[in-house]
Structures are given as structure tokens and as C-alpha cells.
Amino acid sequence: MSRLLRFLPLLVLAAFVAAVAWRLGKPAEEEIRSQLVGQPVPAFALAPALPGRAALASSDLASGQPRMINVFASWCVPCIAEAPLLMELKRQGVTIDAVAVRDRPEDIAAFLARHGDPFDRIGSDPESRLQLALGSSGVPESFIVDGRGIIRYQHMGPIEPDDLPAIMREWEAAR
Amino acid sequence: MTNHSSFPRRREPRFLLGWVPACAGMTICLLLASPTFADSDLPAARWANQQLPDARQEAQAKALMEELRCLVCQGQSIADSDAELAGDMRALVRQRIAAGERPEQVRSWLIERYGNWVSYRPPVEPVTWPLWLAPILLLLAGGWLLRKRLVRRRG
């Protein structure tokens, strides 16, 4: 018995090293997904992000038709990479609304003039309040909300060409 | 990123002559370059870095901020982080506490959105029982080992 006990520290060490090696080889998921997928969109009403442009409120989202909410910012570099793919989604019939996080009207206008404007409505979120209410942890992110105002899908990070089929599938499922 | 291949292998005077202006040039480039991880130009939210006038509410908010995890700089609390989103989270905590919410209500509002991950205080539930029991078990094990040793010495 005491012989076996003598090896106990070594076994504990071996188990510790194995655990660390396993975690190093398979890093933990760093994306923090929103827990609101499957839940109704929280009530909100944003001011228009651009003068003369339709603003965005939660009441616009339960309109019987699905809509995509794109959380973006003119100062966000990956958002530039995503812009042409949003244009493609619009071409395929996706209605996209935008939430401009911590942004200025002139900067948003310049960004849309340069990289394309796929958006229907654009709301302004100067203190990231809607972003936090949605459970979003960065820009860009996209949510698909169905016609009853339930969040159906969250895409984290820039949309890349490989993501389009999955997003179109989720879009069709939300209809 | 540093480019290791441009580093001279042998220290020869001629290399050194070119090395000094190269270093100066690189320093200037680094100073002029803007980071790729951009932040907005907007000033911090009103209550991000400003204390609440009510000292009791500020103490509650501060204690909660130290137990909430920053979403972008994972591993720091929002009280410690300089990230803009952490500032906006501090503003949210202060605004909600100033509006009369209890700290635990604010915490659960965030947990509803981000999961238990966002809070540094793990809830007591079956999944976390080992976490709460481990210190007690380790203390008991330590006491048992110590007792064995003391008894043996006396004998």
C-alpha cells in the first residue's frame, strides 16, 4: 500500500502534464456565443445612424419576414473584408439592417460610399448598448431574426465566402 | 512581427554601419504605423471612467465590475481593462446601479446574454461542485498527511 502511495505524486504530476498537453493541443473555444439565439430580440429603439436614413427598432424586426442584423463599424478593419459578401447576400434576397457601433455619421457615410451599402435600416449604437443587449462581443457580427422577432442565428467575425451557404441555409430556415 | 532573416548573423563593422539607420528607420515606421486592431475615435461613455456621485452605489458597482469578465481581452475584469467594450460595460453597470438595480440583477442580465462565462463568480450547481469541493477536500487531505507525519514523529 505505502509502495503504491509513493508513486501517487508522480501519477498526479503525469495526470497534470497530460491535461496541460491536451489543452495546449486543443485550445479552448474563445468565441463567446450569444445565449439569446432562440430567444426574442430584446426591445430597443436606436436613433438613425445617418440623417434621412431609416432608424432601427425591435418593432421593425417582427414584421413577418426574416431580417439580418449586421453589427459593424466604420473603424472596424474586418468589416471592410465583409462588405462585398453583404452585397452578395443582399443580391440573393437577404434584407440586412445595420447597427453602427461607436460611430459618426460622416464616417459611416464615407465607409458605405467606399465599400458599398447593402443596408435597409441603420441604427446608431454609440455606447455599445444594443451590442451588449444582443450578447454580441465584437464587430463584425451578424444575427438572423425570423419574422416573429426570434433570433435564429449568430455569425461571429467577418462573413467569408465559405460562410455564404450556411448563412443562406439559416436564412431559408428562418422564413 | 519581427523579421528574423534580416538580422545579421556575424557582427561585422560593415553590417553595423547599415544596421543603425535600419534600426532608426524601423523605429520611425513603428511609430508612424497605426495598429490593425482599430478602436473607434469616439470618447468613452459617460460613466465608463467616472465614479457615481453616491459612494454606496459606486462601491457596489466597483465590486461588481471586478467580477465581470471583459469580452474582448478575455482574462481581465472590466474594471482592469482599457478596451472600449469594457468601458461601455462599466458604463452599463454604473447606469443600471444608479437606476436602482441590485448588483445581482445586473450580473444575471449579463449572464442571460453571455452565459456564466462573463462572471468570475461561478454559480453553485452540479457542474461546479468539484470546483467548490476541491479546496475543502485538499485541506482535509493535507491535514490527514500532516497528522500521519506528526504521529510518526512522536512515536
Automatic annotation (TrEMBL), chain A:
InterPro entries documented for this protein: Periplasmic_diS_OxRdtase_DsbE, Redoxin, Thioredoxin-like_sf, Thioredoxin_domain, Thioredoxin_ResA/DsbE_sf
Q: Does the keyword Disulfide bond apply?
A: yes
For this UniProt entry, which residues form the secretion signal?
none
Q: Which residues does the UniProt record annotate as the domain Thioredoxin?
A: 35-175
Tell me which PROSITE patterns the record gives. Answer: THIOREDOXIN_2
Q: Where in the cell is it found?
A: Cell envelope
The main location class comes to other
Keyword field: Cytochrome c-type biogenesis, Disulfide bond, Redox-active center
- Family, similarity comment: Belongs to the thioredoxin family. DsbE subfamily.
PANTHER family assigned: THIOL:DISULFIDE INTERCHANGE PROTEIN DSBE (PTHR42852:SF6)
Can you say what this protein is called? Answer: DsbE family thiol:disulfide interchange protein
> From which source organism is this entry?
Sphingomonas caseinilyticus
